[in-house]
Write a structure and sequence with these properties.
It contains no helices and 16 strands. The N and C termini lie far apart (45 Å).
Length: 205
């Protein structure tokens, strides 16, 4: 079966861990504050607030993620215990829990965009470079994220994302060496700077 064409960004999707370690679906359960207004979608980047609660990370070139959201649960006043693909926002419940892929060694598949949701590409020469996140609002229909990375990459050591490989099946026909999807990891924050996984930030949250 042919690889599906990439027509829109879909967030960061866990695939495995550094060194080929298997991602077995393990997540950490992190609380979200009752009535937190912002919707967080499946594959959105999230971080810990100083309260110890989870919030959306809207950073681009200086994001400080703890991971990505892979769903949530809470007790609904009408339906009881509820599990959802995404956190819809403004949920009045005292037991909202997010399921977060928080491993600093996590590898993700992600789409490349030129701006907002316009799918673009990087060349293989971008492997090993750092990238910035492009923050888009996800879909309330599918519950999926629309976060991506920008096509412009650099060696800037404060950027939160490192490209470690391309996805060969997304090579653009007639444009050799160009790919619409890549595999990425979180960077380790540089000393005294933001832009990388919170667990590896020496100064804490």
């Amino acid at each position: 079966m042919a690889y599906p064409s990439v027509t829109a960004p879909y967030g960061l999707l866990p695939i495995n861990l550094i060194g080929g370690q298997v991602f077995a679906g393990a997540t950490r359960q992190i609380p979200i504050a009752s009535n937190s207004a912002t919707a967080i979608f499946y594959g959105d980047v999230v971080k810990l607030a100083s309260t110890g609660l989870l919030v959306q990370d809207t950073g681009t070139d200086a994001a400080t993620p703890v991971g990505v959201l892979l769903g949530c649960s809470y007790t609904d006043a009408t339906y009881g215990k509820t599990f959802r693909q995404y956190y819809p926002g403004a949920v009045n419940a005292s037991d909202i829990v997010a399921f977060v892929a928080d491993d600093p060694d996590q590898l993700f598949k992600v789409a490349v965009v030129s701006s907002t949701t316009v799918v673009s590409f990087v060349n293989r020469t971008s492997v090993g470079n750092n990238a910035v996140l492009v923050q888009n609002v996800g879909s309330t229909i599918t519950g999926n994220s629309a976060v991506a990375i920008n096509t412009t990459t650099a060696t800037t050591n404060t950027f939160p994302i490192r490209i470690i490989d391309v996805i060969p099946d997304t090579a653009i026909a007639g444009n050799a060496g160009s790919f619409t999807e890549v595999i990425v990891k979180w960077n380790v924050p540089t000393t005294g700077a933001v832009g990388g996984h919170q667990y590896t930030q020496a100064t804490g949250v």
